Amino acid sequence: xxxxxxxxxxxxxxxxxxxxxxxxxxxxxxxxxxxxxxxxxxxxxxxxxxxxxxxxxxxxxxxxxxxxxxxxxxxxxxxxxxxxxxxxxxxxxxxxxxxxxxxxxxxxxxxxxxxxxxxxxxxxxxxxxxxxxxxxxxxxxxxxxxxxxxxxxxxxxxxxxxx
Amino acid sequence: xxxxxxxxxxxxxxxxxxxxxxxxxxxxxxxxxxxxxxxxxxxxxxxxxxxxxxxxxxxxxxxxxxxxxxxxxxxxxxxxxxxxxxxxxxxxxxxxxxxxxxxxxxxxxxxxxxxxxxxxxxxxxxxxxxxxxxxxxxxxxxxxxxxxxxxxxxxxxxxxxxxxxxxxxxxxxxxxxxxxxxxxxxxxxxxxxxxxxxxxxxxxxxxxxxxxxxxxxxxxxxxxxxxxxxxxxxxxxxxxxxxxxxxxxxxxxxxxxxxxxxxxxxxxxxxxxxxxxxxxxxxxxxxxxxxxxxxxxxxxxxxxxxxxxxxxxxxxxxxxxxxxxxxxx
Lengths: 163, 329
Hints:
The complex is a heterodimer of chains A (163) and B (329). With 163 residues, chain A is an alpha+beta fold. Chain A is built from five helices and five strands, in the order ββαβββαααα. Chain A has two domains: 72 residues, Ubiquitin-like (UB roll), CATH 3.10.20; 80 residues, [2Fe-2S]-binding domain (DNA polymerase, domain 1), CATH 1.10.150.120. Chain A is globular, with a radius of gyration of 16 Å. Among the domains of chain B are: 47 residues, Uridine Diphospho-n-acetylenolpyruvylglucosamine Reductase, domain 2; 103 residues, CO dehydrogenase flavoprotein, C-terminal domain (Enolase-like, domain 1), CATH 3.30.390.50. With 329 residues, chain B is α+β, with helices and mostly antiparallel strands. Classes of the chains: A alpha+beta (163), B alpha+beta (329). Chains A and B meet through β4, α3 and α4 of A and β1, α2, α3, α4 and α5 of B.
């Protein structure tokens, strides 16, 4: 078995203690995914597994053997940015940029969840189709913190691109 | 992390065989256990990965729901039957953690998550009877804003952190458990323990036992149910107080009611005294307040958590009024 990262098959680590985050950064040198709190509180390490957003810091890499991982490095097509990457630039969705890879991967996963009809804490109607209002996006993105305070630009970029 | 061996179980039989070994622990989504491993609060010799097992949700013959232990929190909250017949469960799950964590976390793991008491995590600086039995409790006399007011002991004042479990307590859920050569079921109210002299034991599970499913009974009162969580920020924070409630009215009187509180005790707190006092009664703010006063009559308050009985009471009044008028969100 192997882990597929951005379309490339790689070996899982020999030591089961290695997190998916450390495997990406330290072994595969994919340093786009960031280590913030390393305890599941900030969202900087968010990656997509089979299209679903997860926290790579709380994931043992061996658990993801056989799964398909997408990191921030896997989003652009050559020099053509993913539309969400372009929108983050357009809307000043960052200052220092440390939370940005996690924000963007998270937003892509969030859009897929909304499309499937997954409700959120602020959804008035549990049964209906999801409309990504500003309040919905804020709640659904609450797992990604930005200490620079660029949240307004981040939400604008997401609303323009995936809502 | 201390070294451990990792095995992925192919089925439940293999899992419980592996889990029978001394020092073994089961691994679900890892959202709590990986953190506990990193902090060396948990030091298993062997991890048995059960996250790919028991991933189905099916309707039972008597109109209930059988939820596999490996079902992810997101999938459970989004399930059509849960949203329609057990909205309190969907709302409780959606109030917890973040979307990323809900995508990883399993139902079984949610039941097995450990307290978020900061002294429990502070391996370098604090004594904790839950982490090291007999060492003492530095939460008492420390910062106790998130700590228990009901059912605590001299040894431990920790609270259970789950939102989902508060809903399951209100819904009379049943936990299905398996170990090598035996299966059993545990009523949800009996699954988590009060700390007593053994706060290191969170649940009644024996070594090697594995949660395979959580069963919800058919429960007509649950159709009108909801969950409200009060916390220090609007999202992505543990509860100070939470209320899971279901209500069926007959005219102005309460025909049936279920209430459980989160954030008040070492386990999700089924409020049987509130239910007993309100069943058959007219649903007024005064009646709800009096019922809550019965539940919190024996509350033991610490330095920083004396606000909890009053906050729980106000939250309960708001939730039951919302259910009465049909505003369940």
